[in-house]
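Case study B.
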Amino acid sequence: MSRQRPDVGDLVERARGGEPRAVARLVSMVEDASPQLREVMTALAPYAGRAHVVGLTGPPGVGKSTSTNALVGALRARDLRVGVLAVDPSSPFSGGALLGDRIRMSDHALDPGVYIRSMASRGHLGGLAWSTPQAIRVLDAAGCDVVLVETVGVGQSEVEVAGLADTTVVLLAPGAGDGVQAAKAGILEIGDVYVVNKADREGAEQVRRELRTMVGLTARADDWKPPVVLTVAASGQGVDDLVEALQGHRSWLGESGRLAQRRARRARDEVEAIAVAALRSRWEGVGGHADLDRLASGVAAGELDPYTAADRLIG
Amino acid sequence: MSRQRPDVGDLVERARGGEPRAVARLVSMVEDASPQLREVMTALAPYAGRAHVVGLTGPPGVGKSTSTNALVGALRARDLRVGVLAVDPSSPFSGGALLGDRIRMSDHALDPGVYIRSMASRGHLGGLAWSTPQAIRVLDAAGCDVVLVETVGVGQSEVEVAGLADTTVVLLAPGAGDGVQAAKAGILEIGDVYVVNKADREGAEQVRRELRTMVGLTARADDWKPPVVLTVAASGQGVDDLVEALQGHRSWLGESGRLAQRRARRARDEVEAIAVAALRSRWEGVGGHADLDRLASGVAAGELDPYTAADRLIG
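Model:
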């Protein structure tokens, strides 16, 4: 098979049949913004929407990778197929995620019921806001029951993860990311489930108390009460409780009608991101580029205000 | 004067004359996405482009606020007018920056040569990518010689700051944000000047050595060699060296022609952000909203792929 022009229908068929290489190839096409992506998404559309998409976020040092790893194990023990996307929104320049933390995931590297994939934006237009929903759709259509989306590194917007997931898990740990810092990051407003990891360490009980208080004080637009789960991901302690909390939230989403709402909002964000990327590519592409550069020079020189420039760009 | 419809010409005139309340009012109009903003930007355009825009970024705990405060003092001692924008991209939900750290800035609250302003996105379309360049333009046109842009909180994209500034300062400190974490965040690729703050603490020399090595290994698109400055911002030690490093970078930018390049790129980003916000507002506004929602529902239901939906949205 040529590396240049894969047969999309065949690839999608094989991915749906659970062939890991076909799944990997489709995710690469997303990452590389392949020109055939539209064809891929059209082919996948009818098969997506079944997976439970779970986002994991939290400050550095709380054990996100270890927790993801432990979750994969617990979900596999329940015979669920699992996809893992580790996204790194903070490395647009280096063109690739640092994979050190990923090595631990090799616990599951040979399990055919688990797809693990790191993803960077590779600097293409729209970045991860554009590519992550499409990669999720690939794993979803390939038959994953749960797709875990973990953000790697610091500096990313935790809020973006919340926008992509059915259920957002916010991880904290004693001594890493204290209460005030967490509040600053706004992550106490986005969790559907909170985890205090490294719960065998001193201070875990205090983090839980603080979390419960702060979660109680935060007004939510819905009537879900986010649980706080204690785990020691490295030993597996509490991970079953976490799985139950995730499944509890998934059930609530379905029963309350919130799942459809969240997914419609997600689809809206995705359609907008694709539309914006298409327009940017038009503006910055051959022909358009000269226009934008000329307008920008006018603004930089103070000859033109940016609104008028934007009008001319759109018009 | 009515709070509803200020006389823009009068406001701009008073802001240019250095009246703090007029400057504050104009920044508020940016923050609130006032409908008169276009008029404001048109009036300001000819007067902007003189200030040296300096971005400050780094992991939590390195002393960003203290360093900003110390820098303001050192710049004021040189009789320069200073504007400070503390932006908080991580709090779209709460509708306002947490201002605890800002209290220290009250050292300069009564100095008429200093404007200090915290800014949150208040959830409007385009967020801080849209509003920050406009707030910078206000301070610039009001006669600030230096505009310091400091990001508050964790979770923001440090990279965005680099896109807004002439000179980006990356702060580290011993014990806060170790080398590997910093590399992950990609912040070792964006600094024009590096600072090891809290240099009186153990480990400062090691952070400097690591920084020098990593900065040396990082390929830059230009031939600027980022200096590494040791400071103790709380006592003022090393802050004059930092000011000299900033001024050295500013001179190099001018002489090498990079200043014009950076500003043209910045203007390009700004024009794009305004154009995108205008389109989003059209899509999500009365009339457009129904279209986008309908398309999104189709995508969520698997009846439509997101590319086709995006085409219909644009078309």
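Residues 269-314 of chain A form one domain. The remaining cases will be described in the next quarterly update.
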